[in-house]
Amino acid sequence: xxxxxxxxxxxxxxxxxxxxxxxxxxxxxxxxxxxxxxxxxxxxxxxxxxxxxxxxxxxxxxxxxxxxxxxxxxxxxxxxxxxxxxxxxxxxxxxxxxxxxxxxxxxxxxxxxxxxxxxxxxxxxxxxxxxxxxxxxxxxxxxxxxxxxxxxxxxxxxxxxxxxxxxxxxxxxxxxxxxxxxxxxxxxxxxxxxxxxxxxxxxxxxxxxxxxxxxxxxxxxxxxxxxxxxxxxxxxxxxxxxxxxxxxxxxxx
Length: 253
Description:
Elements: E1 5-6, E2 9-13, H1 14-20, H2 23-31, H3 33-41, H4 61-77, H5 83-92, E3 101-104, E4 110-115, E5 117-119, E6 131-135, E7 144-148, E8 155-160, E9 176-182, H6 184-197, H7 200-203, E10 209-211, E11 220-222, H8 231-252
Antiparallel strand pairs: 1-6, 2-4, 3-4, 5-9, 6-9, 7-8, 10-11
Helix pairs in contact: 2-3, 2-4, 4-5
């Protein structure tokens, strides 16, 4: 089967992309994967952050978060990665096959372009992804726009970048293929950036990552002065300390 290239991408301004993949996001994901993905939703205007839509097995969100947790645990406890976490980190730091690129939009603002992949398997259930058209690079179209005829259900090209003529007829499986968005390439770029950001823990943020001071809590804290992951743990420890002091004072009397 010839190579087919999707003509789709997602864009996000570079500043938002950096914020969406920084240490605060990592800690949110590790502490609460559902809440962490809600946090990512605030940055991205693409519908790919449903946990069961991301299809790649190795980049399964729960497995990614487990690997991030292992890396954070070593940095918080030891300040460096022990062999197991280092192996995980090294594996996750392989650049994605289809990489994000930094470009300038019409207003001369730097944006990150994230590549869509494609799948020939129509998504099942409630997650109906947008139809996608992939074409053979041999057509030489460059960037192109296309649409679907509502009456016939057939696609047609509206315009294309290069000065070439379309073959007549267009043959499915040779010139083009209809498919659906596969968002694993976008997710793979985010995973790479998230693990890249953990390098900041030994370069710029030494001592800033720690475990929550509530001994019954397994969450992380990313703060120079903060000791608790949230008000619930802080209040629990403060109440326990207050009661212990009261009990000690009564015993002395």
